[in-house]
Amino acid sequence: MQYKLISIANINFMLLKETIAEVLKHQAGLWQNQNLGTPRESLAGIKIYDSFVLAVSGVRRCGKSTLVKQLLSKHKGSSLLINFEDPQLTGFELDDFRKLDDIASGHNWEIMAFDEIQHVIGWEKYIRSGVDAKKRLIVTGSNASLLSREFGSSLTGRHITKELFPFSYGEFLEFSGLKQDAESLELHMSQGGFPEYLKLKEDEILFRLLDDIIYRDIVVRYGIRQHQTLRKLAVYMISNIGKLYSHNNLAKILGFKSVRSVSDYISWLEDSYLLFSLPKFSFSVKKQIVNPRKVYCVDNGLASVNSLSVSRDEGMRLENLVYLHLRRAHIELYYYSEKQECDFIIVQRGKPVAAIQVCYQLDQDNLDRELNGLKEAMSELKISHGKIITFNQSDSFKVVGKEIKVIPAWNYLIGQ
What's the pLDDT band for 249 if we cut at 50, 70, 90? Predict the structure, then answer.
């Protein structure tokens, strides 16, 4: 798909207060009569305070808007939800919030939610004034860096951030009506968790989603001219999930003239939540920075549909699912690699607390390798127990006085 970039820098859009009011009324009518679908697992733990803005961030189309609607469902009639991706709000500016406040004065809105607010330049100034006025506010955005930068400069200590991902395995089961077993896990491994794709099963949805992330969240925002090069990098990365990469090697493989460009592109792909980089564990921050990283994708279905690889690497698909499961719960994750390798090290407050290996199927040929990787990581990092996550096997081992449990992923991924 080719995109023609049109500069709108010199085009002035002016919005009437009446237009804004009509859009709000139309949007409210749409969502308040909408089936809000599968309740998200994070819903119960989210609270809305009058001294902090709630920020919900995540990849495009993962359900941020639906989550906010689910939060507001108990406040119909006393809450506002405004979606800034509505074409009728093109050109909404910071000054237009004054018109919004005039409209709000005639309503009893206890909560105000702003969807994809990053489209409004200077939005954080209005939100900060709302927090100071003790308003209950929610914002969503598809760019982690953008939100964190604005919060860091204007809303330090005055926001609570929640990340949202495509459906987890548990949410996939709820959505699809399937039971917890190896068969449903296999489906989740290949189809992923984007709600629209699971509903329609049209690959075009995930093709277009990748293009939207690249062009709308990165190319337009950062003014990138070599957008085909960016797309080439993105596709290469999601075709190699679970594998090591370095900026220097990527520059050589893909023909980049500048390693700095690779670094910037990777950073923007991560900010858009398309990719995640996993650093090697070391007590030295310098070593963490210079060592190669492993790459993972936000969704197995998105990776499968857009990947260049024609083979079905079930081990990598399973490893990506386990990574996403851990990423939802543990922000600080690493891989371990010295003489042996271990897929995931969970760190809390600077201390390694768990070691996890992922192996699609254990057999006599790979058992020693998987156990030795865990054993070395556990011994060096003083971790007392470890886990091997498999597709459909259960077992346990004692290695040098340390316990290692083998757990089928269809149990592990829902917290059992």
Answer: very high
152 — pLDDT class (breaks 50, 70, 90): low
pLDDT at 8 over 70: no
C-alpha distances in Å from residue 266, one per residue of 163, 214, 223, 236, 408: 20, 11, 15, 11, 33
Average pLDDT over residues 327-336: 91
Instruction: Give pLDDT tens digits for 265-309.
Output: 999 999 999 999 999 999 888 888 889 999 999 999 999 999 998
Residue 35, amino acid: N
User: Which of 142, 165, 170, 192 minimizes the C-alpha distance to 306?
Assistant: 192
Quick check: 301 and 194 in contact, CB under 8 A?
yes
> Domains in the chain, ordered, with CATH?
17-164 (3.40.50.300), 167-323 (no CATH), 330-416 (no CATH)
Determine if residue 125 is left, alpha or beta; phi over 0 gives left, psi from -120 to 50 gives alpha, anything else beta: alpha
The reported pTM is: 0.92
End-to-end CA distance of the chain: 43
Give the mean pLDDT of the chain. 91
Q: What share of the chain has pLDDT > 90, as a percent? A: 76
